[in-house]
């Protein structure tokens, strides 16, 4: 049976890789972009829909245009960093609109159809930082932890209806996201030196990270699992890292993450 998949943020990075992988596996793929006409490298076989996750009317219009959707991959979002006390509230609100509330609203609109048809897959693309918090990334960590929380709690609600809800947590990924990350740091910030140290290490780790295609393969695995797991991690030595996390105190794991980013 041919399935229809909706992939948000499909114009670049992980979203484009997921859309490509699903097209190759025979899915009808709908990809979203703020401006479909401006997508620089359209993927053959992908139909593009307009979507602004900060605008409820746009989310509703996208859901209506998509119609019956069997697979939803909530991938679109923003990467943000800065000392907590220097993050503007308007920037925090925008981040949560993009990374959390927009994805949740789109999921709300598409779940009833999945439930009625007795089949559905919802994939939240999170981050390993939700499990391994990093200083100066508090807003991003919180947004990814929030979307994971929604997925973990909601999966029991819909699983009796044949709908699986999973979170895919990538580690460091080489997608050029470093250039698109929004940053907030005051000119006279007392955190400037340490922040720059963290950022340099973060960018270096991402440059050496796994490809978007590897993340996409994990997303496809979650989509096509007969009984999807709640959680999938990929990259940054995920199997070993999560095994160690279960064995060591949380404080030790957090120190390891800090040291990997040049922090004491």
UniProtKB/TrEMBL annotation:
<dbReference type="InterPro" id="IPR002347">
    <property type="entry name" value="SDR_fam"/>
</dbReference>
<comment type="similarity">
    <text>Belongs to the short-chain dehydrogenases/reductases (SDR) family.</text>
</comment>
<dbReference type="Pfam" id="PF00106">
    <property type="entry name" value="adh_short"/>
</dbReference>
<dbReference type="InterPro" id="IPR036291">
    <property type="entry name" value="NAD(P)-bd_dom_sf"/>
</dbReference>
<dbReference type="InterPro" id="IPR020904">
    <property type="entry name" value="Sc_DH/Rdtase_CS"/>
</dbReference>
<protein>
    <submittedName>
        <fullName>SDR family oxidoreductase</fullName>
    </submittedName>
</protein>
<feature type="domain" description="Ketoreductase">
    <location>
        <begin position="3"/>
        <end position="171"/>
    </location>
</feature>
<dbReference type="InterPro" id="IPR057326">
    <property type="entry name" value="KR_dom"/>
</dbReference>
<keyword id="KW-0560">Oxidoreductase</keyword>
